[in-house]
Every structure is written in structure tokens, then in C-alpha cells.
């Protein structure tokens, strides 16, 4: 193997390791301030993919699956959203709504919903305030993303379950195991 190819290989390995460390560190520290199960879910108002304001308190009387995710159009986030969409009628039959939150813009959410056929609310937390309030933020220094966390909120507005270690390929089904 030439010295040039060896140097490129080492560079790639180093880059991958640094990336894994950053993601691991950010994920470990993302949920430090998450509201605990048994407490009232912090209320908020954010714009939806339609550009209209949506407030959590509007959903009192319903179960709410409030899920935070890093980025529209990424593989894990697309898988998670598809699975929520696939199971949407089951959620609705149990009086539950699904609300997704990320730092992406309402315009990005609108394009994501249109491309992926999503029929539930995606909210834009571009200033990261709600993600931070829910302990669901990953801070990469120059960039902040919402962490992949979910909160199950009962009809009285109380958090009954937190999902802080989410596998996007299986997560939608976890609700039914409660």
C-alpha cells in the first residue's frame, strides 16, 4: 500500500472516530435536563409545516406522542417518520396524536411531509428553546440539533413515559407496548 493511500485511510478512520465521539458525547449530554415522568409537560407554541402556530395545550384531552428528531431527510429520521405514519391510524384509534419537533424550518418540514407522505404535525424549533426545555438538544458547538427523544403525554398534560434511547426503526411500536 502506498504512503498516500495509507495516510488517506488513517485520515478517514480518524474522522470517523472523531464523529462517533462527538455524536456519543452530545447524545449522552442531551437528556441531562429532560422533564421527568410524572411532571407536567412544558407548554410551548411552535410553527408547523403549514407555517401556523401549534401549542401543546391545544391537545389537552388527547394522548400526545411528542418526538424530537435531528434532521429532515436523513435516513434515521425518515425511517422513524415513516413508521409513525404507518401506525398513525392505530394512534388515532387510541385518541393519540403524533407531533414531531426538530430545528429544521417550517419550509423544510413542509417539503419533508410532501416527499414522504406524512400526515401529522412537524414543528419548527429553529431557536432550539423547546428542545432545550425538554433536554433534547445535541450541541456540536457551531450547530445544534434536536436529540432523538420522545415523551408520551397523557390527556391531562402529564408526561407518563420518556424514551431517551430511541431506535428509529422500532420506536413507533414501543407506544403499543405500554
> Main sheet: which strands, in order across?
2-1-5-4-3-8-9
How many DSSP H or I helices?
Answer: 6
What's the SSE pattern? HEEEHHEHEHEEEEH
Q: State the share of residues found in helices, binned by percent.
A: 25-40%
Give the strand tally.
9
Shape: globular
Mean pLDDT: 85
Radius of gyration: 18 Å
Proportion of strand residues: 15-25%
> How is the main sheet built?
7 strands, mixed
Low-confidence stretches: 25-31
Distance between the termini: 54 Å
Question: Pairing-aware structural class of the strands and helices?
Answer: alpha+beta
Give me some keywords for this one:
single chain; 178 residues; alpha+beta; 22% strand
Description:
The protein has helices at 3-30, 75-86, 88-93, 106-116, 129-133, 171-174, and strands at 45-48, 53-55, 63-68, 96-102, 121-124, 137-139, 144-146, 149-153, 159-163. The termini are far apart. It has 6 helices and 9 strands. It is an alpha+beta fold and 178 residues long. The strands form 2 sheets. It has a 7-stranded mixed sheet. A two-stranded antiparallel sheet has the order 6-7. β6 and β7 form a beta hairpin. The radius of gyration is 18 Å and the shape is globular.
Amino acid at each position: 500500500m502506498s504512503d498516500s493511500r495509507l495516510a488517506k485511510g488513517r485520515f478517514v478512520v480518524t474522522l470517523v472516530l472523531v464523529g462517533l465521539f462527538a455524536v456519543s458525547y452530545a447524545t449522552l449530554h442531551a437528556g441531562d435536563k429532560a422533564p421527568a415522568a410524572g411532571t407536567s409537560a412544558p407548554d410551548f407554541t411552535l410553527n408547523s409545516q403549514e407555517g401556523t402556530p401549534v401549542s401543546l395545550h391545544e391537545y389537552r384531552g388527547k394522548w400526545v406522542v411528542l418526538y424530537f428528531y435531528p434532521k429532515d431527510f436523513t435516513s434515521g429520521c425518515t425511517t422513524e417518520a415513516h413508521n409513525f405514519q404507518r401506525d398513525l391510524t392505530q394512534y388515532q384509534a387510541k385518541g393519540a396524536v403524533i407531533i414531531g419537533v426538530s430545528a429544521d424550518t417550517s419550509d423544510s418540514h413542509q417539503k419533508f411531509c410532501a416527499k414522504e407522505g406524512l400526515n401529522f404535525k412537524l414543528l419548527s424549533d429553529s431557536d432550539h428553546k423547546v428542545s432545550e426545555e425538554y433536554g433534547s438538544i445535541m450541541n456540536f458547538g457551531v450547530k445544534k440539533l434536536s436529540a432523538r427523544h420522545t415523551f408520551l403525554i397523557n390527556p391531562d398534560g402529564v408526561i407518563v413515559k420518556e424514551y431517551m434511547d430511541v431506535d428509529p426503526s422500532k420506536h413507533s411500536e414501543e407506544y403499543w407496548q405500554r
